[in-house]
Amino acid sequence: MYLKALNGLFAPIARVKKYRTNVHYITDTEGHYPSFSSSIKKSTVVRFDSTGKLDFHPGVRDPYFIFGGDLTDRGVGDLKLARMLLDFKYRYSDRVILLVGNRESSKTRFFVELNPKYIRERLIKGSAPFWLLSAPHQLPIDYVKKHMEANHKSTDTLEDIEHYVNCLDIEECQLIYLKWMLEQNLGCPNTFYYHQQHLATEKGCSITDISDYMVLRSILEQNSPKGLIGEYIQQTQLAAIIPQAGIFAVHGGLTEENIGRLPSMQPSDPIIEDMHSWIDQFNIWYKTEVTRWADLNVENMLLDLRPARSPLDTFSIRVPSEYRSIVAASMLDSQRRFVPVPGLVSDYLYRNGIQLVLSGHQPCGDHPALLRSEDDRVVFINGDTSYANSRANNIHDTRGPSFHTLQIHANEDHLNINIDASLLTGKEIKNSLDMSNGVVVDETPIGKLLPGNELVQCLLDGGYYRTIIQEGFKVEYKFRTKEEIELLLSKNLNSPCSHV
């Protein structure tokens, strides 16, 4: 729906006919099946049927299920979730939307970089991905040296290292390189262990019975174009628009630099003003690159010692210049702090009939974060609660008991955002936000940004609002009355907006 300012009021201009739509949105499960399952069990849109398959509740008008990306890597449930979501997608191809996250797109690297043909060259001469070059990092050869030292071999000269690598069998070379990838540049320090756990459960044996070679073979198989994760990647898309509800969904976020831009564009090129055309073209580009990867004959590839060089690797970091694309950007700044929605972004969405943006990618505590544009015409939601317990002693569980069910119910010109959440404390709360004719009509301050990057996150029992201040993975919660918040907002009226 288009809107225009008219004497201080917003008058709707119909772009498409509005009708009842119901959406369940979840993102960034990263292999954590319990939080996913708990979310579904409280949904009024999606359910588990009697056989355990995902399905829509009978009688729900115009239902959609959107998974926002980052399915894998940080839990033992990623393969189970992939099978479940693929089955759901195949039965409701137009209503189940699987978005690609940076974790999915990066999985295409395994098929290319672990190919036996050049694995020894990669270990000895391989570089690091370009996004690591400006920071301290380790190279594949550093992992070779660790392997040599563990076997009491000298690493004094390059000749020593080359001789050692040439004497290793192919699978041992692949294992060394795989562990370097997972630990050093894919953000997956424990993924190998999780996959080992999965195989032990699947085979009904002890984890000690699962060798490193078994894990390697399984990862290679699952992440090949014909494997489960490869199949899943081929069913994903970059972004989605549900025009009848004015909803846009993407894994990352929209910034002044990436909005309206494609990987093929130069920084000086004018942006694509029509959002539907932009996203259609971007999805076509993405599907083309995925098909090219799936059809790739790796035996005919030329050696490239710089890893992560394919378009599927580079577009998710910086496209087309030194800024993050809509997959890897977020509603947070480079220090992971909440910042105002840039006017250029909200205006672009407003002109294109978008009133709600669903995203993830950067953690935001134990409850989804709503961020409203200054004029209340656009609401951003970050649903990534993967680090709900950022101070967890157990590195394998940074969520604790927290989970949420995020649903959107749209009916003609009214839209309701409903969040049913279980917090890290175990406390269950329900929050909602209403929009009408493309403008927030609730008197609640939820989604308002206070001075000091403090965001009003949710309303607790007893009338207190909880706010969140975040920097990096450090999260601080405060508890404020509505009067306190209104006072802080009045001080913020003349504050300059900034966005990184």
UniProtKB/TrEMBL annotation:
InterPro entries reported for this sequence: Calcineurin-like_PHP, Metallo-depent_PP-like
GO MF, one example: hydrolase activity
Pfam families: Metallophos
Ranges for domain Calcineurin-like phosphoesterase: 63-181
PANTHER family membership: CALCINEURIN-LIKE PHOSPHOESTERASE DOMAIN-CONTAINING PROTEIN, METALLOPHOS DOMAIN-CONTAINING PROTEIN
Protein name: Calcineurin-like phosphoesterase
The species this protein was found in: Legionella quateirensis
